[in-house]
Amino acid sequence: MSVVLAPATAASVRPYSATPMPSAFARQMMNRMSFGFCSRTFHQMQDDGGPNAWFARQLNPGSVSDPRGHEVNDWWPDRMLTANQKWKHVFADKKSAWEYAVDLANWSLMRRTRSSRQLLEVMTDFWSNHFHIPATHDLAWCYRNQYDATLRHGALGKFDDLLVAVSLHPSMRLYLNNFESTAAAPNENQGRELLELHTVGRASGYTEDMVKDSAKILSGYTVAVWKDWDAYYDPERHARGRVKVLGFEHLNRKADGRAVTEAYLRYLAHHPATARTIATKLALRFVSDTPSAGLINTLAKRFRSSGTDIKATLRTLVAHPEFAASRGSKVRNPIEDFIATVRVLGVEAHKPTASGSQFARAQIWMCQGQYPFQWPRPDGMPQRNEAWSSASRVLNSFDTHYSLSGGWMGEQGSVTYRTRASWLPKPRIRFDQFVDHLSRVLLGRGSTDRLLTAARQATGCRPGEIVDADHQLVGWMMPRLLTAILDTPEHMTR
Fold first, then answer.
1. Residues 359, 339: Cα–Cα separation, whole Å
2. Burial class of residue 5 in the structure, from the number of CB atoms within 10 Å of its CB (0-12 exposed, 13-18 middle, 19+ buried)
3. How far apart are CA 127 and CA 77, in angstroms?
């Protein structure tokens, strides 16, 4: 059956005020500090007393009840196996390393979709990108789930504590080759990335000699590779001798250099250049591609004065006028777009019972080729809009919106989609009011003349046409209407 497209002339919006929508600031808070506006988070925000009260509670995730988030914790039980157990499964051909990476990705996607502790999930993702370790790395994969738990534990704490925890984690030792360091030949990989990516950055002025000293300080932390995969400290592998990195100096005479290592990491965490690194990354993620020098300076100053307190820095960011003024300025990457679409459409995945095309197991393949935790380089996924604005990426997102709107992803019984009739706010409604209602439900804002015109073109419906449960729009044409709304910049940006 073909559809006669409506004329491209503009039509005036007729609001459907019975459907509530958030304020612009509340919507901004949900789109930046959660994985996107949706009715569930909107209601949670209303119950908490508004966007600022909601944000204050989100900063203390333990105070937020999260039964839907906790429910998925046992959906992929193999995640919790030890590194040694996982390797034994690989050698016995019971499970491949890449399958463990898929389990972690699917579990994380489900947490981001369902959890009421949205800020915790967002910040876990932020730090996972900053301290990036590919979940498919040849060796690091076996500790990657435990690494994720470390990031989640420290995501809203103090940066200096988090830096120590992740830098000494066995997954990081394996990924950046610190496990290979010996007293005679410290491996420089982690020592370099610690300075370049994780803390002070190149502009701080560190030298190659400082990179070598950084490697000496980190030596001794190793892993029993190809044995029992135990992570331990070996004093005989620690390179002794005087070290100097920027303003940090130590005689480093003892075989047990763990105290020196922790002092060094905490020095880097509190360095002014590290404050600018973190401030810039936070501004890029939560504000815009072009944050002002004033915003970065304000965040860096608060980061240092608070003793690297992540919560305090986030409070300062949200209170800054550039945060509220930057609505819609950040393009969602494909992973964020998938999660936001699942959330607003109310897609409910069920606990997986078998392999195959069950929705919970297939989520990773629905992210348009960007698999969580699989960026190939140590710098993490790009944060600027340009990387996610190509025509092919946009068209792939359109396809995902259409498939999810139609309820065509996942085996029958593995997922529940809303019935098409459930989108009607009342038994009979004008088409233009229906579009406004759906805009409020899917975008958190009222319709516009442009959106109404696009909806008319997608469906062939007239503004005053009456829609009810027997109308073809509530049948086979509903995915077209939902997709016309989801394909807009208002959904694909945050």
1. 13
2. exposed
3. 24
Provide CB contacts within 8 A for 452, sequence distance 6+. 10, 11, 12, 13, 432, 435, 436, 463
Whose structure tokens read 């690494």? 147
Tokens 């068209």 belong to: 395
- Kindly report, residue by residue over 310-354, the tens digit of the pLDDT: 999 999 999 999 999 999 999 999 999 999 999 999 999 999 987
Is residue 119 within 8 A of residue 34, CB to CB? The reply is yes
Contact 120, 154 (CB under 8 A): no
> Tell me, what's the pLDDT at 369?
86
Q: Is the separation of the CB atoms in 163 and 265 below 8 Å? A: yes
Give the model's pLDDT for residue 354: 77
Reported as type and span, the H/E element at residue 24 is helix 24-33
Cα 99 → chain centroid: 20
- Find, among 347, 344, 346, 348, the residue nearest to 442 by Cα: 344
- Dihedral angle, C-alpha 60, 62, 66, 69, nearest 10 °: 90
Please, are residues 308 and 466 in contact by the beta-carbon 8 Å criterion?
no
Contact 397, 368 (CB under 8 A): yes
Q: 467-487 as b/e, with b when 16 or more CB fall inside 10 Å?
A: beeebebbeebbbbbbbbbbb
Residue 12: is its pLDDT beyond 90?
no
pLDDT on residue 415: 97
Mention every residue, 6+ apart, whose C-beta is less than 8 A from residue 486: 341, 344, 401, 405, 442
Which pLDDT belongs to residue 219? 98
Helix axes 118-130, 272-286, angle to 10 degrees: 120
pTM: 0.96
CA neighbor of 32 nearest in space, from 107, 108, 149, 121: 121
pLDDT in tens, 397-417: 999 999 999 999 999 899 999
Burial per residue of 244-268, b for 16 or more beta-carbon CB atoms within 10 angstroms, e otherwise: ebbebebebeeeebeebbbebbbbb
Per-residue b/e over 344-353, b at no fewer than 16 CB within 10 Å?
Answer: bbebebeebe
**E strand or H helix at 223:** strand 221-223
Strand extents, DSSP E, 378-421:
415-416
User: Structural domain boundaries of the chain?
Assistant: 55-269, 272-325
